[in-house]
Specification:
This is DUF7848 domain-containing protein. InterPro entries: DUF7848. It is elongated, with a radius of gyration of 20 Å. It contains one helix and four strands, in the order ββαββ. The strands form two sheets. Strands 1-4 form a two-stranded antiparallel sheet. The chain has a domain of 57 residues. It is 17% helix and 26% strand. By secondary structure, the protein is an alpha+beta fold.
């Protein structure tokens, strides 16, 4: 290998099953953005119900849906079946 040359190192991005994902929605309607939001939830159901209620109450129809989760970046070969880090 040439001095100063880099060789690629394989990485895998693996979902972290220890921390649950979060779901959220923010109203993006109106001339001036409404900015009301559902708050974070561990399930998409309450967020969808919030959007329907907010739409009924305000007539707003455009929303930003937000999904967040934690991942692990693992260096090396194949990812273990359980997604863990060696």
């Amino acid at each position: 290998m040439t001095p100063g040359a880099f060789r690629p190192v394989p990485y895998a991005v693996v979902g972290n099953e220890v921390v649950e994902p979060t779901y959220e929605a923010e109203c993006a309607s109106g001339e001036i953005a409404c900015c009301e939001n559902s708050g974070p939830h561990r399930d998409a159901g309450p967020v969808e119900r919030w959007m329907r209620r907010h739409a009924d109450d305000t007539g707003h129809r455009r929303y930003l849906r937000i999904f967040s989760d934690y991942v692990l970046v693992r260096r090396g070969g194949p990812v273990p079946a359980d997604g863990g880090v060696p």
